Amino acid sequence: MPIETDLYPQAMPLSLAASGQTVTILQVNGVGSVRQRLFDLGLNRGAVVRVVQNDMSGPMILAVKEDGRLALGRGMAHHLLVMAVAADNG
Amino acid sequence: MPITVALAGNPNVGKSSIFNALTGSHQHVGNWPGKTVEKKEGRLRLNDRDILVVDLPGTYSLTAYSIEEIIARDYILNEHPTAVVAVIDASNLERNLYLVAQLVEMQVPVIIALNMVDIAASRGLKINGKRLSELLGGVPVVETVGNRSLGLDRLKEAIRQATDHPVQPSLPYRFRGVLGAEMDALEAQIRADKQLSGEYRPRWLAMKLLEADSAVLSVLELQGATELLEAARRARERVEAATGEDAETLIADQRYTFIGDLADAVLARPSQAVVTTSDKIDRVVTHRVWGLPIFLLAMWVVFQITANVSAPLLDWVDGFVNETLYGWATALLTAVGLGETWLAALVTDGVIVGVGGVLVFVPVLIFLYMALAVLEDSGYMARGAFVMDRVMRWMGLHGKSFLPMIVGFGCTVPAVYATRTLENERDRKLTGFLATFMSCGARLPVYVLVGTAFFGAASGNLVFAMYLLGIVVALATAFAFKRTVYKGKPPTPFVMELPPYRIPRPRDVWRSTWARTRSFLVKAGTIIFTVSVVLWLLMAIPASPGKGSFNDVAPEDSVFGLISGAAAPVFQPAGFGNWQAAGSLITGFLAKEVVVATMNQIYVGAEEATEEGGEAESAASFVDDAIGSVVGFVRALALTVQEAINIVPRTVNLIPGLEVPEVSFFGEAEEEESLTALQTALVASFNATAGSAQAGKVAAVAFTVFVLLYVPCMSATAAMRHEFGSRWMWAQVGFTLSLAWLAAVLVFQVGRLFV
């Protein structure tokens, strides 16, 4: 179901989040199997993800559930709608 | 029924270390039936019990997303292992608990091996194992460090207890709201069905139905459970109507809520997030600019290891089998009065040469597998794939496809096996397919022979052009596949755990190296051996009665000559339609370097090309030979070390302007084979077939193009069959043959217009 973007004006696809940003996942899009995959990897609604590296091309590196480092292709990252919770560009 | 214990876990959680530590050397590596996924089994002796330990493929989950997941899930569902050991990465607890939750949902007896607790501790993470066990309904939790064999006794004890008194865990959490109610209703409906409730755990099946799990739905459809499927569909609709969310999302939500609460309860984090060493290394290794050169350097080293470091031992094996062993067998057969008979020839030229053909690959594979194991175990492989993914993706390939391609320049056989590092079967097959177009080391002598014969000093251009053409063809094939066979099937989305860096343990590296090499020897070896013997037979049987007798027949009069002659016209449009060229291409299937040997035999004459060693051998020289072989082996080992050291100067010398001398233990001893007689005959023959000296040159180019592109060799084909199955192997044989022919004809016909 479409997210009410008025409520979340800062919502953006995860693929656009900058390195160092910490975001929370608002919505997981995509067809069944892709979505299930994202769930399996800990990228469910409400999960907090830190963007370790995003070069704006090629896959990105995420810290999921604080500990693991996950490389995620941009195609998959487009399916995640996120919102920044804190930024520490350090 | 035997006691079985399955190991489940995410990729890169140190599952193989645990597996190795449990089973020691009692291992068997094969494939899952009908799949190209590696299956490892081993035996664990516990007191008086013999336990079969099965290493399930590493998966993040037990949904039906990938073949690996389906294999793991089906194994647990259908084979009913006595217990499942969930190996989880303690430094990444929350993510790993997802798989544990799914195992618990399947209601199989679970043991949790909290692995890599050392890394977790180094990050300041504290896990309360006792609390974890309680919250999961009494599931045993054991702390381990697999690569240092810590905690194994406790794990074995837990396995022993679990196999003595299997405890079926109860679900430690319930689903809430409409979802929970619908799940209960479905569960009740399944329980009422005797057949279904005998086959599945009703609770689990109800959950999968609400998740609309594709594998489960299609199995139930086959079983004709239409009523249940319909009820499930309606239940999913009701959930969505009531909550505005689909059931799948809700299940994931609630499962994660449970896992999140669980992690909060058992895991204590340091107040300040630690910047790990892994992160520091990653800042350089996955860097946008530096990542690629670092990766290429690593691949260069792997290539050096498989191509050069393995060469001295390869030469030694080759010499030992084809000269020493050949000589011994000849001497022995002569001594028992069988010399010069067809039986002697079968044993020596058929069997021993066949065995040699298999064994020469062993050093190459050992070095390749060692390099791969180090890359995998250290954690670098995942980074390399990360770096290469953006480059490989536009060809429809995966980041990990790069390594097999590089290895393919050394030898196609290890390249095919190197595709095992890819998780997805489709990616694996495509990569293996393309790797065959990389010019392997065995093709080089053919390029050089033809090049120097026809183009003299400019032969280097031909060699370079062939390497380039191979790459271009691989890219073009990838593109063509992306638009045809794989249309609408994009490469698997790139998702990969980047495990923390670790120092690989030599014992684990060696175990995986040896297990994989042995698997090659058994599977591919049998085929290579058989084909060698058959080919020998074809060359020994005269085509018609009047022309020689069995094992005493000129090549052109044998069945082999007959076949070559029959095949020759096929190559007429490509300019080399003579039986000699056709014949050498046929033997080239044994191994491409054999093309040169066969040409030598056919053109220059059999008498010169036969083995110098074998004939005059006498029993007295046996001891000398044995000593010589041992000395040769030691020398080969020394040369291996030399080549390993030489990687450094060779790498430094890549930088223009630098010139570091290479180490040489024994001085220069290049053996130069004289091929002038062959080259003259070759040029004459090609010119005659093609019609003129100019056309002969074009035909020669067409010939090398054919050698580049056609079926790599019998060993590579056997490896393909081993890895990807017969159908894929035949597809590959057919495709490469047609492509090679078309390309050769094109080169000759177009080239002729310009000369």
Poorly predicted spans of chain B: 606-617
The name CATH uses for the topology of chain A is SH3 type barrels
Number of strands of chain B: 10
Biggest interface goes to:
A-B, 35 and 47 residues
Helix content of chain B: 55-70%
Strand line-up of the largest beta sheet of chain A: 1-6-2-3-4-5
- Quaternary structure annotation: heterodimer
Name of the level-1 CATH class of the domain at 3-164 in chain B: Alpha Beta
Reading the helices and strands of chain A in chain order gives EEHEEEHE
Strand line-up of the largest beta sheet of chain B: 2-3-4-1-5-6-8
Q: What class would the helix/strand composition of chain B place it in?
A: alpha/beta
First-last Cα distance of chain A: 36 Å
Mean of residue pLDDT of chain B? Answer: 84
Structural class of chain A: mainly beta
Rg for CA atoms of chain A: 12 Å
CATH superfamily of the domain at 3-164 in chain B: P-loop containing nucleotide triphosphate hydrolases
Which fold does the CATH topology of the domain at 3-164 in chain B refer to?
Answer: Rossmann fold
Shape summary of chain A = globular
Overall number of strands of chain A: 6
| Biggest sheet architecture of chain A | 6 strands, antiparallel
Largest sheet of chain B: 7 strands, mixed
Structural account:
The complex is a heterodimer of chains A (90) and B (755). Chain A contains 2 helices and 6 strands; from the N terminus they run E-E-H-E-E-E-H-E. Chain A is mainly beta. Chain A has a single domain (12-85), classed as SH3 type barrels. In chain A, strands 1-6-2-3-4-5 form a 6-stranded antiparallel β-sheet. Chain A is globular and about 30 Å long. Chain B is an alpha/beta fold and 755 residues long. Chain B has 33 helices and 10 strands. In chain B, the strands form 2 sheets. A 7-stranded mixed β-sheet of chain B has the order 2-3-4-1-5-6-8, with helices on both faces. In chain B, helix 7 crosses helix 9. The longest helix of chain B has 35 residues, at 506-540. Chain A binds chain B through residues 1, 28, 32-37, 39-42, 44-47, 52-53, 55, 57-59, 61, 64-73, 75-76, and chain B through 60-61, 63, 65, 89, 91-95, 98, 123, 125, 211-212, 214, 244-245, 248-249, 252-253, 256, 263, 269, 273, 278-279, 282, 286, 288, 382, 385-386, 389-390, 393, 399, 490, 493-500.
